[in-house]
Each structure stands twice: as C-alpha cells, then as structure tokens.
Amino acid sequence: MRGWAVGEPGPAAGGPLVAVERVVPDPGPGELLVRIEACGVCRTDLHLAEGDLPPHRPRTVPGHEIVGRVIAAGAGVTRFSAGDRVGGAWLRHTCGVCRYCRAGRENLCPNSLYTGWDADGGFADIALLPADYAYPLPEDAEPAQLAPLLCAGIIGFRALRRSALPPGGRLGIYGYGASAHLAAQVAVAEGATVHVLTRSATARDLALSLGAASARGAYDAPPEPLDSAILFAPVGDIVPVALAALDRGGTLAIAGIHLTDIPVLTYEQHLFQERDLRSVTANTRDDGEQFLATAARIGMRATVTPYPLAEAPRALADLAADRVNGAAVLIP
C-alpha cells in the first residue's frame, strides 16, 4: 500500500506529511481490508499533522472519512462481503462494557480508539477497518460526495443536536467549512432559520446558496437573537461573541476536537439568563446511522474540492490556509 503518514508534526505549509509504502496487511478477525475510493481531509487531520493533537503512535497515516470497496473480510465478519462499498469513520473501537458504553454514550468511552490517530487511516490506497464500526454506503453515489459525510457530516449532526435547536428555531453557525455546510443543510431542511458567521467571503457565498438567511463576518452580530449556535471554527475568541448573540435560554455547542484558549467570560453578559455552553466529543455509531439516513432523505449535497492522493500535502496546506471551499477530498 502507498500513502502519507505524519512525520514530524509542524505547520502544514512546512510539509509534515511523508510518503510511505507498506506491505498490504491481511485482515484479522473482525476486520475489513478495503481499497479506498476517496478519503476526506478533516480539520482533525490538520490538528494531528500540525501537533495540536499529540500523536498516539509514530508515523500514523491520517484520514478518517474513508469510502472504499471491501477486498477481503477477516474471520467472524458477517455484515460485509468482498465488493461491498463501506465507509470508515473517526470512531473505530469502544470497550462496550464501561458505564458510558452501557448508557449509549460510547463517544465518551475512556478506552475508545480512532482511525487516523490510533491506527492507520485513509490517506492511502488501502486501509484496514473494523467491521463493527464501518457503515454500508450507497452504490449510486460519487465516492467524493460520500467521504465528507463520514466525519464532517456525522460530527456536525451531533453538534446540531447538542445545540438544542428548537423546531423552527434561529441557528447561528460560526465557521463554514466541511462540517458546517453539511449541518446547515440538515437545519434548513428541518425548518430552521440559519445565520452564518465566518471570515471567508467564499464561504459566505456558499452559505447563502445553500439556504442560509444571512451570512456575515465571524465577529459580527447576527441580524436577530439566536436560539442556538454551533462553533465550528477552532477559535476560542469567538466563544464570548457567540454566547452574547444567544437569546435567553440559548445554547452554544462547540464542535471541534481542538480550540484555542477562550477569553475570560463575564457571567452577566455571556451566561446569565440560562444560556448553556456545551462541548461535542466524537460520536456514537447511532449518530452515524441517523445522519446517513437523514442525508439520504434530504438529498444532501457536499461541496467538495478533489485532490489526487499524490497531492495530500497540498490539500492539507490549503485547508490550513482556508483555501478549500467546502470539503477537501483525496482520490487515489
């Protein structure tokens, strides 16, 4: 197999990815050997490559928005067969016995493992995926369209639910990249009024084309008080801005795995009147199943910028510099 691994973490423009060539592995019990058709480039991959997330193992192949075809299945696999199209996502293992797993909150499992962080991911032409954490994918969709759904979409969906948006509510979205433009489509389809706050003029244009009621700068005030808000940009300075934009009883959900430091909050201005501040941690498999069903039902369309797998370093650098419209996707 050929792909890219994180060598020495550092700025994306400096080239933290290194080309690797490895022996194609055999699938073990419960595993799928998958030939990759497409893999999205997630901001989490950028955080890992740049060192915002500490590496869990040396020279790991990043990528956890994997679309591919099963080449072979290991012992005990009954859900999938050779030739099936499957998706590999961020969550790849939970213990199943801790208090969180037993309560349906496997995203909080202390023994959880993640694709592209604890095990090699999809910046390659071949991957191993645990069958129990893979998703069946439709045959009639473009692989590049499906790839962003497998993390950006799933996490955005969980963030939307964590934001406690009431029916017909007013939602503010701060940052408008891969995850945000998919979550916004769900919110609009469910009858919400969506206001987008982002620094990118291109992203503001995309937001309006996908049904947003308004699109303004990241630090601007929305045109009306918000019932809920989601912060997708990994910028802690926006937290007080978003909290101040909430109406009474509103909720801000922070969707990222990494966030720069949050400035001092003033209780009266930012939290009083029962405003809530929530984080979002990974996802459950049920989140993934619900989101993929919702995406199919509403005819979700991802805006993608494709890159050949050979240009993975450029895709990562473009993501870091906000040069990607929608989602970057690697095509082997």
From TrEMBL:
Family: Belongs to the zinc-containing alcohol dehydrogenase family.
Catalytic activity: a primary alcohol + NAD(+) = an aldehyde + NADH + H(+); a secondary alcohol + NAD(+) = a ketone + NADH + H(+)
Names of required cofactors: Zn(2+)
Regions annotated as coiled coil: none
EC number(s) recorded for this UniProt protein: 1.1.1.1
First-level EC class: oxidoreductase
One Pfam family recorded for the sequence: ADH_N
Domain of life the protein comes from: Bacteria
Protein name: alcohol dehydrogenase
UniProt keyword annotations, A-Z: Metal-binding, Oxidoreductase, Zinc
Matching InterPro entries: ADH-like_N, ADH_Zn_CS, ADH_Zn_typ-2, GroES-like_sf, NAD(P)-bd_dom_sf
Residue ranges constituting the Alcohol dehydrogenase-like N-terminal domain according to the UniProt record: 28-139
